[in-house]
Amino acid sequence: MPDLLLELFSEEIPARMQAKAAEDLRRMVTDKLVAEGLVYEGAKAFATPRRLALTVHGIPARQADLKEERKGPRVGGPDAAIQGFLKATGLSSLDEATIQRDPKKGDFYVALIEKPGRATLDVLAEMLPVIIRTFPWPKSMRWGKRSEKPGALNWVRPLHAITATFGLETEEPDVVSFAVDGIEAGQTTYGHRFLAPAAFKVRRFEDYEAKLLDAKVVLDPGRRKDTIVTDAKQLAFAQGFELVEDQVLLDEVSGLVEWPVVLMGSFDPEYLKVPGEVIRATIRNNQKCFVVRDPKTGGLAPKFILTANIEATDGGKTIIAGNERVIRARLSDAKFFYETDLKTKLEDRLPKFEQIVFHEKLGTQAARIARIEKLAAEIAPLVGADAAKTARAAKLAKADLLTEVVGEFPEVQGLMGKYYALAQGEDASVAAACEEHYKPQGPGDRVPTDPVSVAVALADKLDILLCFWTVDEKPTGSKDPYALRRAALGVVRLILDNHLRLGLTSVLKMAGKGLPKTLASVILEGLRPVVKDVAVMTANAEIATAVLTSFQQDPARSKQIEELTSAIVQAIGEVRGFLVERLKVQLREQGARHDLVDAVFALGGQDDLLMVVRRVEALGKFLDSDDGKNLLAGTKRASNILAIEEKKDKRRFEGAPDAALYKLDEEKALAEAIGEVAAEAGAAVAKEDFAAAMRAMAKLRPAVDAFFDKVKVNDDDAAIRENRLKLLNEIRSATRAVADFSKIEG
Question: Do 453 and 523 reside in the same domain of the chain?
Fold first, then answer.
């Protein structure tokens, strides 16, 4: 079957847009083909800095013929309905329609419409211009004289040529005949801008890709990436170094070149006094170059690797020299920033935070730091951290945000805090916490293990969660501007990975203690313009102070502060629930069953996440066994019977059964087993030995099976029936020592 080749040749397409643009082109064309009844065999899209290309193979040469029956009005119906039917179906008269007999509803006219399929070439000629004109670029432009005309094309950069061919592999393809904004589709494209700029004709994709390669254009982004990485590694290895790989930078660089040529430059070793991360950020951000590592020292080498888009006649010496000149200037700036930052201690920067608003509803960054410092010190003993070191770390953790280096390279925040803390002689744990309190920042990020870092990281994340929940800035749907889901997942991972025994409610209450004062100060800050006006009118600062005091003592203001306190209490409960949901997500991603998490949390008071996970693990293993499966079935049967009978009697069957009313051995055996299991399982749970609790639960299985096999629950004797229903309730109560089995699926 025929193949389609489509290329849209333009000026430079931004690297960040290329991958999505290629996927959009593939999706839009193939979706439209399928909608037109043209099912294809395969499609692949490509992008370079100057072109988007698409190949779709195995497309039928024409659409299938369509036959459709369309039901019309009743025989003898209104003339207007009949005329509308004839017009809609294209029939010249009712003689061309058939009559469908319906004994109940009467006879109807039916039109048999036959629609011959169109040639695929015609379909493509109709759909491709629409796709090009409606292409979803994030940003687009108009250009030249054509931009003055109505309906001028908007494209990411000036579009110069369109290649569109369609045909069988064994035959000369046809050009898909259409034009967009005066640009006629054809078979002509262009090679590398400098190395092979001449136009040339192409026939189909294999021919197109091969001729592009001859014209110094590597079409496939994956192939360009492989070339860059392979050549860079070899170049570094030849000089005894190792490439510091960077996938994000590689993706960007491969979108900047059509013919990658890898070269190595150098810089003054004097700049290696600057932290390696700053050097890397400088070279990466400003020149899109890779850095290399010296395997002997483990640190960076005074070299960098660049990717040119041209084979220079001088072997790249001029290109290297130009990059070295820019990098030298950038590293000089970075060294100056770093050395300037070292002259000011971290704590000396803190007063500036009084002037920086963290959030309009939550006061200054200084107030937030004070809350984190206090909360971290309270959490410290719970995680085995030194309280004084933790408070110190929390106080300094955000200070590097005001440094020159972080101002220039925000991605090294925290890390520079560690370097500056070590430089001013801070304890190693304090310095580490300056970097690690932001972690983990995602599912794959490292979780801190140093107790001081853990305490500060928990305080930072719990504070931000509770703050934004209190002022009703929660995540909604797909929107999470303050990364609260990430913060919550960070709390969960910090607790689980460090095996911490923390009650969520208690630590959230700790976090909430500092909020009323902060929120009240935000309210009073809003009154200061009023106070200032009074002071201006009276020219008396004492009067202004008295006015502010009266506002503070105003019952309405006091009530407002009480309402804020109530909002904090509500937020504590909601944040706890949000953390539980994040735990469920985490466990589900690890392969655990979400219903087991629900079964454990249904017991109430379960806010020790580590214990919840251990219960879930033990419960999952138990339910994988035959004893677990059968006990679950028996427990659910008991719960279902109880639900039906309690609804019928409009009461619950609670309280201890009367042993004197047991008539059958199976009742007595079940009662005895429940008593034994409840005591044993309860003792095991108290010791937090959940595996032992599950083993105890397994002992219920034979007694439950025998009971349902031999005992009629709804006995004719009302007293015996009630007693047996109470016995079923005992099964439900006994299993709740480990989980609410009614929440478990299956």
Answer: yes
